[in-house]
Amino acid sequence: MKISIRGDKVEITKSMKNYIEEKLSKLDKYFTKAGDVHCSAVVRVKNGLQTVEVTVPTSKFTLRAEESHQDLYAAVDLIIDKLERLIRKNKTKLTNHYKNVPEFEMSFEYEPIEDEEEDQSKIVKRKNIESKPMSEDEALLQMELLNHDFFAFKNTDEECVSVIYVRKDGSYGILNIK
Q1: Tens digit of each residue's pLDDT (9 = 90 or more) over 161-177
Q2: Domain boundaries in the chain?
Q3: Which CATH number fits domain 136-177: 3.40.470.10, 3.30.470.20, 3.30.505.50, 3.40.50.10790?
Q4: What is the rounded distance in angstroms from the CA atom of residue 74 to the CA atom of residue 80?
Q5: Contacts of 90 (CB under 8 A, 6+ apart)
Q6: CATH code, residues 2-104
Q7: N or C: which terminus of the chain has fewer CB atoms within 10 Å of its end residue's CB?
C-alpha cells in the first residue's frame, strides 16, 4: 500500500511516520492488489487532541475515518480498528454489489483533488468531486463507507441529482433536485 502522511500545523517525526505506516499496512490483507492502493493520512493537533484522518479512495468507493485522542498513537490504533470494522461490516454488501470486483479488489483511477483557493465569502472550503451515476442503494453504501451524515450523487433511479441523509431517528431520507 502506498501511504502518504502529512501534518497539518504539526511536524511528522520519523517515529510517528513509521508507526502510522506500520499500522496502515495491516489493511493490505483486505486488498488483492495492495501495491495499487494509495492511502493518505493527515495528522492535526487542536485543543490538546491529536486527530488522525485516513482516506482510501478507490475506483468504486472511498473509505474514510477520523479519530481524535490525547495520544497520537492511541488515535492511530483507534482509526485502524475503525477502518477494519468498516471494511468487515460492509464486505458482504460490497462483494454483492460489485460482483465484477474479484476478491474485494480495489484500484485507483484518480488522485485526491486539492482544495481551491478560499473565496472572500463565508465559504471556507470548496471541493470538486467527480461523481458517477449510481442507484440509491449504492449511494447509501457509499455514505456509510465515508462515515458521513449525507451524500450527494447522480441518481439513476430518478434521473436527477439527489442527496441521501441520516435523519435524527436513524432512518434515511432523500432529497431529489430536479
Answers
A1: 999 999 989 899 999 98
A2: 2-104, 136-177
A3: 3.30.505.50
A4: 10
A5: 141, 144, 145
A6: 3.30.160.100
A7: C
Q: 520519523: which residue's cell?
A: 14
Question: What is the spatial distance between Cα 158 and Cα 161, in angstroms, rounded to a whole number?
Answer: 8
Nearest to 54 by CA among 28, 24, 91, 96: 24
Of the candidates 17, 120, 108, 5, the one whose C-alpha atom is nearest the C-alpha of residue 63 is 108
Task: Tell the residue number behind the cell numbers 461490516, with chain if given.
Answer: 89
**What span, in angstroms and rounded, lies between the C-alpha atoms of 176 and 44?**
36
Question: Are 5 and 55 spatial neighbours (Cβ–Cβ below 8 Å)?
Answer: no
Which of 99, 106, 44 lies closest to 75 in space, CA to CA? 44
Give the pLDDT of the chain (178 residues) as one tens digit per residue: 889 999 988 899 999 999 999 999 888 887 777 677 789 999 999 888 999 999 988 767 788 999 999 999 999 999 999 998 888 777 777 667 666 544 444 433 333 334 444 335 677 888 887 788 999 998 998 888 888 899 999 999 888 999 999 998 989 999 998 8
